Amino acid sequence: MCPENFSNIVDIQISFIIPGFTGPVDQCTKTFQRTCSPPPPPNKCLTLVKDSIDCIKKQYCFQVKNSTSPGFNIVAVELYMVSPSNALTPKIINIPLLTPGATSDWICVDYKNVNPNDNVCFKIVGHREIIAGTGPQYCCIDTIKHCFKVLDCCTGDACTLTDLTLSSSGGSSCCFTGTMTNNYCDNIYTGFHVQVIAPATISQIQALSGYTIYAIDAHNAYLYPATAYVPKGSAQIFTMCPENSVTL
Prior knowledge:
With 248 residues, the chain is an all-beta fold. 2% of the residues lie in helices and 52% in strands.
């Protein structure tokens, strides 16, 4: 267990319990007093409200709320314990005076020295405004670690960097295997649409490589990967046998 809302001394009672008329009854209770330094409670400094990634500019942008308790004004935000250590610049950003309970404008930093799908993690530090006669400026830090995944920027021509092929399968000239190649982007395509043009119809279709057929009718089938997006690489995605086709 980890208690909270105490300074440095915590009293803990532990009991055996027996059934009672109105509920459990404590017996053989022992009391323990322990001294420790609790970690700061979460969201008592700066709370991350929104974030966004600009893939073209290679910027990570975010908004924070001043959640200090007791409250004080914040004039700078620092991204602390960044992993990888050299991923974000600048690490300290001056901002307009942020009063308790207020939300900042968008704050943007550059990310570099990372690859698509890398995770960048950090904690948020709030720097208090300097008030005459109060001594040196000090700061607060939240216990929550925040992370974002570096996106694939999807540069180049999509239809040049992707491909779809259809080959005969199962020893039949009327059954086919569909194969996809995606060298373009791993966070844009959500699935595939297979359409058999009338008068031909779909006799049977089977998803491959972990894909799932979500909807199907006589002429259309939609296939989706197990993940949110179609991954990069090549894979067979379905086998199918149309019927009612026209002989040429």
